[in-house]
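Page 42, continued from yesterday. The earlier attempt failed because a stray header line got pasted into the input along with the sequence. Redoing it now with the clean sequence only.
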Amino acid sequence: MRLPAYLFKSRHGIFYFRWPIANPPARRERRTVRLSLGTRCPKEAGALARYLAFCGSNIEQSVPVTGMDHSVIRTKLHEYLRTTLARAKAYREQHGPLSPDNRTRIEDTLSLLTEGNREYWDLLGAEYAQEELNKFFEKTGLRREDCREQTAVILDEIRKGQIGYWKALLAHSETLEVYDFTEPQSSALSANSSPSAILPANNENAASAGPSGPLLSELFTQRRAEAERANEWSPKALDDYQKWTNLFIELQGDRPIVEYKKSDVREFKTLLQSMPSNLRKYPETRGLPAREAIDAAIAKGRPILSNSTVNKALSRLQATWTWAAKQLDEDVVDIFGPMKLPNKGSARNEADPFSKTQLQTIFKSPIFTGCKSTRFRTEHGPTDMSATDWYWLPLLGLWTGARLNELCQIRTADIDEEDGIPFLHIREGKETQRVKGHKKRIVPLHPELIRLGFVRFVQAQRSAGHDRVFPALELGTKGYYSDKPSKDFTRHLRVRTH
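This time it went through. Structure tokens are written below.
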């Protein structure tokens, strides 16, 4: 259970409440109120701590402090956010209303912002709070030393200002979804524009000016429906195709597929090469339109997409173009293939491999030498984990080089023997058993796997009537057995290798 920042448990199991208080003028160090809640019950402790936190927030906001006048802080912040909002509205008027994905991200951000001042900043962490304070002082021109006693107030005003900003942007986007003839729709149309200035003079002109063929969004909807009917794409692949198509439409506009040019793809590729590897991961990019998110990520020096990921995006779109070429009477030119980036090696080689020291740290951890329990896997103890996927998946990955999902889905029938040599048959079988690129292969089992007892483990699973080697692993929402093991192992690495 994740505890709030103001609640912690002593080594005796008693819950304590802690709350930072402002320093007396004569001291520089922060002080913290620490109060025993006199209970070992998490539910009771949580209720008591939430009440105390509520009281603490009210006290902080009500106690008068010296320094900058509160009205000055609000005025400066309002001016800064109003300027930012004007730019965002102009961008939306040029590129159209928010996409469903962007709207969802903004709504998620608003949900976090309305949690409360302390809850919001505790959730995002001290580093993010400090970044926002730095931005506040930089953009407003206020001096940090004049506001030292008002940090909590400033953070609360920033949070409230962001709530107003995102709500205003959502409301503005909604005005771009409808036509209200009582007011001009946007600055793009003059209030004095006559209907004849907007509409074609006759039907013949209208036909010549209209789009040639279905829009990309319409074509992709048809392609997706066909793939779903034929069970052609896994849920993960389906999401991937949708993600890159939505991004291309957001950046280059939704047009008939034959109207896109190589110049559109060149610009798209250039933007991808500057795009952060996970737009939703970073607070400064979450909820922003793609172009603004790229600028924000560059300013922060965030990691960007690898060449293989850029090429993957181009390949997803190229596949849609190839499909469209078979469906449409018009000539559909492959504008994506020539744009792909050179790969110096496989996609795997773009990531740094584990060092020898890191591997030794991983395989000397309690999972492989004995841990306290299946729950407390990072602590040494008497529990033997050699009958679990936690134990075997890292070892199989080390000694076979197979992908994680290929190992998670193997069946007892996939481990066999020929001429006295045990081997692992990586292949596609039932509907949920997939191999990337359909590249089935036979991998001899390394002597170390045999020595550690992997063959005996498989035989035990077979004798127990299990069809799969790791029956405890469940199929994830995207159609892969590796969803949970991947997240669990990543968390384990953070503990063991840092």
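Notes: The beta strands are 7-9, 15-21, 31-36, 415-418, 421-426, 441-444.
Reminder to self: strip header lines before submitting.
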